[in-house]
Each structure stands twice: as structure tokens, then as C-alpha cells.
Amino acid sequence: MDYLDWLRWPAGSVCPGCGRAATAVTTGRVWRCGGCRKRVSRTAGTIFQDTRTPLTVWFAAAWYMTADPGGVAALTMQKLLGLGSYQTAWTMLHRYRTAMVRPDRAVLTGRVEVDETFLGGEQPGVRGRGALGKTLVVIAVELREPRGYGRVRMSIIPDAAAKTLREFLITTVEPGATVVTDGWAAYPKACRDWFAHEPHPVSGSGHEAHELLPAVHRVAALCKRWLLGTHQGRVEVDHLQVYLEEFCFRFNRRHSRARGLLFYRLLQYAAAAPPMTYRQLVANPATQSNQAVRRQGATITAQQPRPAARRSAMASRREPGVSRYLTVAVKWITHMNRCRTSMFAAPYFQRTHRHMRADEHTVSDRPPPIMSAPSPPRTPAQQRGRW
Predict the structure, then answer these.
(1) Fewest CB within 10 angstroms: 184, 193, 237, 335, which?
(2) CA atoms lying within 13 Å on the CB side of residue 7
(3) Tens digits of per-residue pLDDT, 148-206?
């Protein structure tokens, strides 16, 4: 809590009600102002607001998220932290991703290379700009002199029209900077009156696109490799933008002296970011029960129950959990208490033997033997007889 207070108020805790410094601090996440006596949560106004997960677990998730250059997936985070729910791990990571974007971050300056790329798996049909079933992403990379790359920005766009590209350039690139692009016809209109345009048409140049625009192609290749490697390509289009922001957060800090600096910067942004609930994070907050879905050729709404066959099929696929074994153990203990006999008592073995024979589906008119004292050894005469 002291570390979080230091991140939020480097000059000391300040009451949001009266603006005076907090003089009395209570235990836990709540402190009290010495002036207006107002109780204020120390996590209010951050991404940790109203969370039931300990802050130590949140800090551990931030460390795992920044320590590995490739990041971590939600399922891996669940295993590392020992969380019982995948939803908890996903929510923690998604809150951190939303905090990685500062509203007042600086724009790109100097010479900036801009191009578009498609994210998504292989789809049948044409390739390139006419491909269907993929997401169009525009990339802007700073070019350093004499060589090297600076910061990067990535954003999802609905199309590659001049109006769309112009909006991205105005919010991302400093006015008056030089924008390096390919020969796409929309860029001259997008850069008009705001930026200096430096086109490099690919057709007729005798060079490949990655040779004329190496920065954006390298960033696009790294992003696609990261999505396929860390997240196995399982990123929904509705959440793709926050994953792109996470990639930019790592790429822009690739030259940090230590991974702890990324951890510090992430928690600093998290302490200043507004709180978000799980319903605000998910792309489609409406539950599936409120939507009309088609199953087995019939339309099932929220008022209609599921078919019995569907219910039984789902129950058959359910794996036995811990609760099932606990239920069996409780029944066995209750049965032992009701017997009121020792484990080696004869009635207990009679019942157990009878149950075992019933489970084996054997039919026998002979009653089960009753355990008694062992009989004396047979004499030689008895052994020579018809015994």
C-alpha cells in the first residue's frame, strides 16, 4: 500500500474532498483525512478499485507481464499465480493493457514511416488490400538518423481512405513532420497542408515493399509473430486494439536498462488510469442467454429452456471435480458413523460383501459367510476321507 501511495502521491497523500494532506491513515485500503474526516479508499480512482484480489497478486501479475519480453497470456498467468478462474487472470491483464495508453502521450516527430497491414489468418480469396475476413491496421514508425527506429504507433482502421488516414496522422504525427509512404493514392490527400509527403512507389521501382519501407514491415512482422507465439493467434477483433497498445508499450521501451523500469512505468500508469469493470472491458457485455441463438435447428430465446439432450450432453462432458470426491467422502463417513461398529465387525463385512456381489451382477442363493474364529486343523483321517 505504501508503494501504491507513493506512485499516486509522490509529494504526500492529498484528500480529494478538501485538498489537504492526509494526516491520519487507517489500516487496510482506507485512510481518513485529518481535516474533513472523510474516509477515502487508497485504491479509488485506479484500476485496482473494488477488487477483491490482493494487491500483492496484482503486482506479481504486473511483474510477470513486463519481465518477459514476449509477455504472457491469460491462461499462463492463471497457472503462474494459482488463480482459480481464467476470467480473473484475463481481467487483470486487460486492465493493465487499458492503462498502457496515456491520453497525453507525445506524438511522433521527424521522419515517420507509415503503411498499412492486415492481421488475421489465411483466408480464401484475393490477397493484399482486397482480402476479406482480416483486420486492417495502420502503422507509424519514427526513423532515426543515421539509422535505427524510434517509437511506434498502431491503430485499427475501417478502410484505407484518405479521410481515415488523415485522422490517424493528425492524432499521431507532429504537424510539419515528413511522412514516408508507398505509392497509395490516398496518402497525398491525407498529408495535404499538414505534413511533408515522401512517397516511394513499389510498382515499377524494381524493389520489394520491405526494401523501400523496412521499418513498418519489421514492426508488422514482430507483431504478428508475437500474436501467434504468446497468444496462439486467439485474439478477438473486438479486443485487438488493446493488444496492439501492449505491443507498442513493449516496443517503445525495448532499450530500457532493466525490466524493473517497465514494471515501475506500468504501475505508475495503472495508478493514474480510471477504474474499469469487467462489463466495461468485455466487447459484448450482453450474456448469451439474452440473445436469440439457433441450436439444433430451433430458435431458443431467454424464456425457452435448453433441450434435455443438450443438457445431458453438457453434463456428460463435465469432468469430475473436487466437490464430487468431497461428496463421496462425506457419504462414506456418514455411513461409517451409522454402522456404530468396528471396521472388522461381521455385519459390516456381510453388507459390504452383499453390495459387492450386487455390483458384480452375480446371483447366488447361498448367503455370504459370517466371519468367525478359524477352525482347527484337520486330522489325517479327515484328510483321507471324502473331504
Answers:
(1) 193
(2) 20
(3) 999 999 999 999 999 999 999 999 999 999 999 999 999 999 999 899 999 999 888 88
